[in-house]
Amino acid sequence: ATLRRIPNPKGYQALEETQMPKPTFPSTLASYVLVFEMDDEWRNMLEYLRINKEEMPKTAEGYQPSYARMNMQPLVDKLRSADMIVRESISLDQQTMICLISISEKRQKQVAEVMGPDLIQLRLKKKDDLGSAIKNAGGWTGFKQQLAHLYEKCSEGSLFSSAQQCQIMEFMLNDVDERAMGPQLIQKEACEPGNTPLMQLVSDLRVKGYFCLHHKKKIEWLNKNWVSNPTGKQPIEDIREYFGQEIALFFVFHGYLLTMLWVPAAVGVFVFLVEIVAEVEEGTMDNPFIPLYAIYISLWSTQFVAGWRRIELAYQMEWGTEDIEIVEDDRIEFVQNPKTYKKLNKISHKEEYFPDPLWRSAAVVSSFVAVTVFCGLNILSAVCAEVLKSMMHQALGGDGWWMFIKVFGASLQAAVIILFRYLSRLLFEALTDFENWKTESEYHTALVSKRMCFAFVNSYFPLVFVSFMVNHVQIFGVDISCPNKQCMDYVEMMIAVIFTIQIAQRFIQDTVLPYYEKKKADEKRLAEADPDEDAMEEHEEQMTLQQYDGLDRMYTEKVVEIGYFMFFGADFPLLSLMVVLTTAVEIRLHARRFVQLLQRPQTKVVKDIGQWTTTLDIWAVSSILIQCCFIGYTTRALEVYFPGMLPVDRLFYAVTIEHSLLIFKVLWDSKYAGVPDEVQLAYERKNYERGVLLETFDTPNFDKTVGFFTEDEGNIFYGKVQE
User: Are 206 and 74 in contact, with CB atoms under 8 Å apart?
Assistant: First the structure.
């Protein structure tokens, strides 16, 4: 037999790239980015290096020292001396030097143990009866090196997720604990009160900026399975792992809202069709189903809020945040405020910052007066808009212009709402800063309280005014009542126009403008780029993305949107369907914004969504009151069930329904206030299994065992004592 030679089109010798593949950085290591400004002298040195293939000597003609490089180099040396991996990269325009910082898994373990369970928690592994691993089923505990083999790896393939790695690196860079042996980029004594070392470096103009780099493979997975998969289930566990509990709860809330709204949307479509039939046959939209739908919305509001509280408790147990003590640092603005004083705390015997009590009291009173006056101006503007609409109706004459007048009045009210909403953001932030709150939670509570009190007036007063008052009052001697005292069609038009305009404005602000700005910036870079140069690196692209500005604005807009349905869903039955559609679209738009348009946010551990749940509870009570007023004052459909009703009878029935619904809310909240039994049982089982594991592996018996190091990473292995 003769051996047949297999032809090799590339020749016998392997290609160079086959023998020595291009080195790639390990995908399991996250990167933290420090950005430094470059000067002309530094760029001249780089140009000399490119031409002559060697560093520019100090004796060379035209040599000038680069102070930007002299500023950066000591910091980079400190990073490397702290056993941190530093990669340097120059931007295409040679304006900035980008330092990518990473740390090895060995270093991650050392620092994570120092950080403790309140900052870093990992899941314990869990297996079924057959020995197969059960994903995301174990309990949570703080990291200890001797327990490293018991922890479950994250979905990125490493022990610590990229988000946790960024937490660890920021812990080191800010020199939070000396035991972490961080780089000490700047002495803490040199920092202004309240500033971290990174903040101080930015304040001193030594560092241009810093942020955490997106994990390439994970962001591609999220883009494919979340952003580009509108019909798929949200990967909440992956969102929590990558973005943290705060952002994960934001999407849990949107998903819960979408799930809860399908039944009201279907019922609302049915009621709307009945309204159309009633309009054609009887000339009015009033029909027997409207009071029933109003009562159903009030019941739904109670169940929605109670259900969300249970979900919050369930996720606290699922994510191990129930027992975490979240300790807040003092706000930088509070510490640096001239009205803040430092004195000895008689309980802790430590010096702490305290606000000037007299100044705080005066500031809170001033804010209350300012918010009250601003609400009054808003009410006056809404009333004037209604008067202007009525004057135009009278000037045009006849009911033939009524459709145009309805659209004009609704658009005018929408313009007033949007204008005052923009002004309120500027005013309330200034007032809350003026009050000088100590912690972020106190500041957030004060700001949300102002926003939601004003949002109730700004967003809902025009509809309440038209629904219940315009037929009974005259303003400035002008008759502002609806034709034939029937305002339901005008209220429906107002809700549709106001809701649609606000959704459009939000879509343009959150999606269209950021996408246009990013597209314009990309086109500009492509036009200015040299075709012979390499494409822009991933970290440089992320440097140009928008910074994360929190969730307050998005929560405010969504809670106001929910309020429209809770308060006026019976006036305009299609509103529930509109909320369903906008929520379904916004989930993917927000996902796209976090994945593609924003720099990676810093993870934040939270237990719940805070004041927004309290606001929704207030909304639920207000829903009962407003829906009962709608039944008693706006719709006349009760006469179908109780013929020959007098106005006092209508009032009696409305009050009776209102009291019944409030009693139902109290009973429902008391019955469903806690966590579901199956969730509580699973949580207790996890805690028991965790306790058994820790007792077995984390409590060595020194009479029978001895601890010694067996790995380069320093993991402790407990073995039997040799006799």
Answer: no
Which residues touch 63 (CB under 8 Å, ≥6 apart)? 56, 57
Looking at residue 93, the DSSP 8-state letter turns out to be: T
Q: What is the DSSP code (8-state) at residue 600?
A: B
Tokens 């009570």 found at: 621
Which residues fall within 8 angstroms of residue 443, CB to CB, at 6 or more apart? 331, 432, 437
Cα 212 to Cα 180, 197, 354, distances in angstroms: 20, 16, 33
pLDDT value, residue 506: 83
Tokens read off for 452: 């939601």
First-to-last C-alpha distance (Å) of the chain: 65
- Residue 87 to residue 82: CA distance in whole angstroms: 14
Determine the residue type at 591: A
Task: Check: CB of residue 269 under 8 Å from CB of residue 574.
Answer: yes
User: Look-up: residue for tokens 């405010």?
Assistant: 556
Instruction: Give residue 528's pLDDT band: very low, low, confident or very high (50, 70, 90).
Output: low
The encoded tokens of residue 723 equal 């006799």
Nearest to 200, CA basis, from 44, 336, 63, 368: 336
Per-residue model confidence as pLDDT tens digits over 663-694: 999 999 988 878 888 888 988 888 888 888 88
CA distance 311 to 320: 14
Could you tell me where the DSSP H helices lie in 319-356? 332-335
Are 560 and 50 in contact by the 8 Å Cβ rule? The answer is no
Nearest to 116 by CA among 649, 605, 592: 605
